[in-house]
Amino acid sequence: MSFDVGVTNKSKNSESNIKSMLFLGVLWFSLFVAFMFLVILLVTTFMNGIGRYDLRLFTEYNNTTPKDAGARAAILGSVFVVSITALLAIPIGIASAIYLEEFADKTKWYNRAIELNIQNLAAVPAILYGMLTLGILSLMGFKNKNVVFGGALALALLILPVIILTTREALRAVPQEIRDGSLALGATQLQTVGRQTLPAAVPGIATGTILAISRAMGEAAPLLLLGALVFITYDPNGLTAGFTTMPIQIFGWTSAPQEEFKTLAAAAIILLLAILLTLNAIAIFIRNKFAKRW
Amino acid sequence: MTESSIGARQMTVKHSDRVATFNPIMEISNLDVYYGDFHAVRDITLDVGRNQITAFIGPSGCGKSTVLRCLNRTNDLVPGARVDGRIDYRGHDLYGPSVDAIEVRRRIGMVFQKPNPFPKSIFDNIAYGPRVTGMKMNKSETEDLVEYALTRAGLWGEVKDKLDQSGFALSGGQQQRLCIARAIAVEPDILLMDEPCASLDPIATALIEDLMIELVSDYTVVIVTHNMQQAARVSDRTAFFSAKVDDRGQRYGHLVEVDLTTKIFTNPTDTRTEDYISGRFG
């Protein structure tokens, strides 16, 4: 690797070479450790789930007899709750980001304070959003807190900061010249946002939003607090219906004594992973396909 | 435009015609521009002649682009920007309380240093302005307007078969002419150009210069340029800006002199202008 360039001291040169090789070795090792854990986890989970990769996983409700149990209520619950979450969080998140990025006067202290706090919110532990939602539901007079609306609200609050931050990033990536050009033609700020900035930022917004949704899909903590760990044997059928979701159902099965439930949990984990990987793949696809070069 | 070759310019004739009838369309008096506490441009007084090309020249940081951006209230959009003094446009105070900045920008168009086509088709780039400013048009009227604007900008012949292609598919010079066509499509009164040829090669630059000379019979053009030869070639009147440092150590832009281009370039009143023109500084 070493070659004499004639100016540097040779012994010093080889010394720094050893150092950089060592450093590279440490980096590779770190990567290897992280990757190995992932592979071991995936393989063992997949092996544990063998025997339950069947249709009944999708079609059957939970059951006290493990071989008759399935994740139907949890799958539909996840889909329902996350859909409502998306409906709540996406419009508010995008609108907030548009305001902060395109309209707010950044020289004003209160706008900077809002900005800073949104960044902080993104780092708040998920369970706190569960507690907040619990409080909101109590104020609204819900006796039973395990309702679809409550779960969706908690998850929406959880992913709102993520959506706002990624949308702002996407808007910021749209060149200022596009806005200038539009405004110079006599377009209003609103027209400029609606017809130029926002359409140009859609790929970035979509990517960030899908990643946020997949986070909501995999989240359990705030829903546990709402009491979503329940035995549901019906399809979620309304905003105030009881629900369970896949992460919760998996949590429930893994803590059950029967070995067959653990197999079922492993199968459900693989299913959840497949859904999340699909969502992330869509996000990457959108990012690559519509990535604009100005 | 494309048919008339680059060499065949009749500017000397047109030039003297335009200079003979000075008729101000814009009167800037005692203009000061601030960005927050920073007093960036001080005490600018100059007139812009109708159907003339006025060039703003001067070293970097002398405030010429800032003043240009004040002329269509684009500078309002910079947070913390503030203007003192008066700009009269056809007898109306441009910064008056009842004046709508959006309407000002519609009448006083702007072309930027870097060609900035929208990420849309060539057709939609041109049709954008009329659409957002609420011109009521059916499909064939829009098509006519797009053809007219592209023709005026000397681009029609080059793009008429690919109107549905992206504006980004064009070369830099074509993109800049697309931006000029886009500005023409909203039928402005004045065209402001902020170093429109800064990123173009000499041939594309010559096309844009020809275009300016052709457009000035219908429009008023104000151009900021770093290229003194360009100012000398195309403009009727030239304003020379320079930068000074005040006693608090703040650098600010001011106007040294404004006069007929021929006078500025042959017999300037101020020695600083002469030094700049002759390349002794800047």
Describe this structure in words.
- The complex is a heterodimer of chains A (294) and B (282).
- Chain A has helices at 10-49, 56-59, 72-103, 109-121, 126-139, 148-172, 176-184, 189-218, 221-226, 246-254, 259-290.
- With 294 residues, chain A is mainly α.
- Chain A has one domain (66-290): MetI-like (MetI-like fold), CATH 1.10.3720.10.
- The radius of gyration of chain A is 25 Å and the shape is globular.
- Chain B has a single domain, classed as P-loop containing nucleotide triphosphate hydrolases (Rossmann fold, 3-Layer(aba) Sandwich).
- Helices cover 36% and strands 26% of the residues of chain B.
- In chain B, the strands form two sheets. A six-stranded mixed β-sheet of chain B has the order 6-7-8-3-9-10, sandwiched between helices. Chain B has a four-stranded antiparallel β-sheet with strand order 2-1-4-5, covered by helices on one side.
- In chain B, helix 4 runs parallel beside helix 7 (172-184), helix 5 (139-152) packs across helix 7 (172-184) and helix 7 runs parallel beside helix 8 (202-215).
Topology:
The complex is a heterodimer of chains A (294) and B (282).
Chain A: H1 10-49, H2 56-59, H3 72-103, H4 109-121, H5 126-139, H6 148-172, H7 176-184, H8 189-218, H9 221-226, H10 246-254, H11 259-290
Chain B: H1 11-20, E1 24-35, E2 38-49, E3 53-57, H2 64-71, E4 81-89, E5 92-93, H3 101-107, E6 108-111, H4 122-132, H5 139-152, H6 156-159, H7 172-184, E7 190-194, H8 202-215, E8 220-224, H9 228-234, E9 237-245, E10 251-260, H10 261-266, H11 271-277
Parallel strand pairs in B: 3-8, 3-9, 6-7, 7-8
Antiparallel strand pairs in B: 1-2, 1-4, 4-5, 9-10
